[in-house]
Design a protein that fits this description.
The complex is a heterodimer of chains A (168) and B (258). In chain A, 29% of the residues lie in helices and 29% in strands. Chain A is an alpha/beta fold and 168 residues long. A 9-stranded mixed sheet of chain A has the order 7-1-4-3-2-6-5-8-9, with no helix packed on it. Chain B is mainly alpha-helical and 258 residues long. Classes of the chains: A alpha/beta (168), B mainly alpha (258). The interface between A and B is medium-sized, with 26 and 32 residues.
């Protein structure tokens, strides 16, 4: 059980290199993002979320400021979306949230438009002004069948019901 | 023996016996890990043999896998005009699946087989019995450092494998195919999340390390004291480790993955 300084040096080097690789992956690539308990948590209710996914980005003016934490159905059959945002963000209470699509067929994400109110949103607050996702298939359906009223009635709920709804 | 039904029964009993003796062996190692002689020198020597000596093969394989992922990913993504997400493809496949699994398979072949063969040879030459004669517990002196080193070494090697793989993908995607370095790194950074991906990766490789150490040492420890027994133990160690790693990978991904 001899101790050899050279071997121990290599072992030390190996362990340090391994730990450095883990640190690089975690910090530089993984990025400790908005996951701390101090994050700003806001919720919003939407009539339609489209294919919005958990962990989808939340942006302001195209800059990523957080992500979608949970999506669940409320008692009134609207979708409640919880967002986890950068805690340093100062958002007015009349901020609005809309679900938009990157490109024509891209991923869904949430865009926030800060308002002008002087009062600020606190963690746990609810964003009152929301704009739901536009479902492309329904738009196409409306284009094809929605123009003639008789046909729209025939096709019933699927094609005729919803344009994107602005909810106060 | 002629009765096929009783043959199946015999096999089943043997299998359950094997599981039980592996569990007892694991408990033995756990007990000796918690009792005093730390065996730090032996542990450092095993780190050298299992870790430092595997470094070259891990880095070369990581680089090769990353380069292939870069090439394949590029050819697939270019059809959709989405070359900009090459970093995300390479990074997520390496971190979530290929890194932990391929490293575990390489370690099983490179270090696990050597461990099983070494302990098997000790069984043949009755060195373990010699230790028992001197009232030294062979589990504490021989097995524990090897199993512990395997547990420590596998996550470290996995991280190095992934780092090399990311660099390999970068070499091909940016160097060879003249992609944009900024979009490679930014798609990589935005796709990989610490809590979902890196944690899952490290958890996987730690579990793999534990299993590899247990299987290799157990196979060597229980090998028949003949030349044939050692060769059978070495083969069984590699085969069982590989199958276990792949099956466990599915279970972990199904339980914790998204």
């Amino acid at each position: 059980m001899d101790r050899s300084p050279l071997r121990d040096f290599f072992v030390g080097l190996f362990v340090l290199a391994g730990i450095a690789a883990i640190a690089y992956l975690s910090i530089s690539i993984g990025g400790f993002s908005w996951h701390g308990p101090t994050g700003l948590k806001l919720s919003a209710a939407f009539d339609e979320t489209g294919e919005l996914a958990v962990r989808a980005p939340v942006v302001i003016a195209g800059v990523r400021v957080g992500e979608v934490a949970t999506i669940a159905l409320q008692d009134d059959f609207r979708a409640r979306v919880e967002m986890d945002l950068d805690p340093t963000l100062k958002l007015p209470t009349d901020t609005s949230a809309s679900i938009v699509t990157a490109g024509v067929l891209g991923d869904r994400y949430i865009e926030l438009q800060p308002g002008g109110d002087e009062k600020l949103l606190k963690s746990g607050d609810r964003i009152a002004f929301t704009e739901s996702a536009i479902v492309l298939e329904r738009l196409i359906g409306q284009l094809l069948y929605g123009t003639t009223k008789g046909k729209a009635a025939d096709h019933g709920t699927g094609a005729a019901t919803t344009a994107p709804v602005q909810t106060p | 023996m002629a009765n096929p039904v009783s043959h199946v029964g015999y096999k089943a009993v043997r299998f359950v016996q094997g599981l039980g003796s592996l569990a007892a062996f694991t408990a033995d190692i756990a007990r000796s890990a918690l009792t005093p002689p730390v065996r730090f020198a032996a542990f450092a020597r095993e780190l050298y043999k299992l870790g430092v000596r595997s470094l070259l093969i891990i880095c070369v394989c990581g680089l090769a896998v990353g380069m292939v992922l870069g090439l394949q990913g590029h050819h697939t993504l270019v059809r959709f005009g989405a070359q900009r997400s090459l970093g995300a493809v390479v990074g997520l496949s390496l971190i979530r699946e290929l890194g932990p699994v391929l490293t575990a398979l390489l370690v099983a072949g490179r270090a696990g087989s050597a461990t099983a063969a070494e302990i098997g040879a000790m069984v043949v030459t009755e060195q373990l019995n010699g230790l028992r004669m001197l009232s030294i517990d062979p589990v504490s002196l021989v097995i524990k450092p090897k199993a512990a080193a395997m547990l420590v070494v596998t996550p470290l090697l996995t991280a190095l494998f992934i780092a090399c793989g990311l660099y390999g993908g970068y070499l091909v995607g940016v160097g060879l195919l003249a992609g944009d370095p900024g979009s490679y790194m930014s798609s990589l950074r935005s796709a990989v999340n610490f809590h979902n991906d890196i944690e899952c990766c490290m958890l996987k490789s730690a579990v793999f390390g534990l299993l590899l150490g247990l299987i290799a040492t157990y196979r060597g420890y229980t090998s028949a004291p003949t030349a044939e027994g050692v060769s059978a133990a070495t083969t069984a160690s590699v085969v069982i480790s590989s199958v276990t790693v792949l099956l466990t990978d599915y279970v972990i991904t199904a339980l914790w993955g998204i």
